[in-house]
Predict the 3D structure of the following.
Amino acid sequence: MERDVIGYGYNADHARFLGFVPGATTALSWLGDVIAAGYNRHAGSFANYPAGCVAEEGVLSWFCERAGLPAGTAGGLFVSGGSMANLTALAAARDAVLGEGGWERGVAYVSEQTHSSVAKGLHVIGVPRDHVRVVPCDDAFRMDVAALERAVAADEAAGLRPFVAVATAGTTNTGSVDPLREVARVCRAHGLWMHVDGAFGASVLLTRHRGMLDGVELADSLSWDAHKWLFQTYSCGMVLVRDRAHLVSTYAAHPEYLRDLEEGGATNPWDLGPELTRPARGLKLWFTLQTMGSEGLAAAVEHGFDLARWAQDEAERTRDVEVVSPAQMAMVNFRFAPAGLSPEGCDALNAEVSRRMCEGGYAAVFTTELRGRRCLRICAIHPEATEADMRGVVRGLRAICDEVLAP
Ligand SMILES: Cc1ncc(COP(=O)(O)O)c(C=O)c1O
């Protein structure tokens, strides 16, 4: 049984796979995939694949509405995932603020907890590494907005041009949400594009916890990854923008050999992002929404909040455990810190506990680093995971900890 859970490599779709953002998938998504892959229609333009493009556009408008982006101008594109969503938005931000010239003066702002894909995206669009400011976070791992504003002002005074600030709604390590409304205020005051990386956490907008993302409606762009907390198969991410015209001006190319397919004046998916040939990635999400309904999806997302709380509750009852970051969204971080063991010794202990848990195959719990120390990170979103699973995992980690510490 245990070998089946992990086998060779990791099954990120298992209820006790608690690493990165698990790939918990609904079978409805597979069905949508089968349709998209089976017909293999080129979903770059409406003329090629009206059904797929119309379904995608409808779903994108629905998600824009959930995010509070303005009807009429807002829109977006399905891309392969969070990394591509971030990259797609960052290029639009650069063009919108810096125009064709002056790229060399552009400066971008991220936080200590911003996902690594943003740094990659900034590199790809030509922002030198010394023009990326890493803003510190507060005790709850949220961007310190006063520090952001100071950094922006200092760069302006130095003759540089701050052009984008990236806030996160649901950080990868801790599920924290940057103060979105405050970040928006700074962006508006200094003429920056506000990008929100909600690859993981934007799904909370479907739930009764949506108030956690207050201010997201002020974003210029938003990444929202359906292969994370919307239970889709890889690859299915969305980039949503406040004004779709920005994507068009960055990406529309109109090559001569495709003009016949551009009749009717539609804005085609190939005008909105870097890809020309693309599958209708959004079809499976359309299929899922039609079948589960938004209430079904909301209930599945809310379950993740419960899972993380159960894990935290069990951790708090467990000997020698220090909760490093309490349950936020579906994330919780803790570490074994027995009295008398040095911080470095605790780092090694937690790494070994994680390694043995994964090797044993009962569950996958990896480590991350917070405040310079290793801890055990749980991200739990699987709709079939139970309270017993969460408590069982924490007890299992404790049992392994005892084994490691045994003389
Ligand atoms: C907040 C955030 N942004 C971006 C990404 C990258 O998404 P992807 O792996 O789909 O490219 C992740 C991945 O976990 C993430 O958590």
About this structure: The chain has twelve helices and eleven strands. The two ends are 30 Å apart (CA to CA).
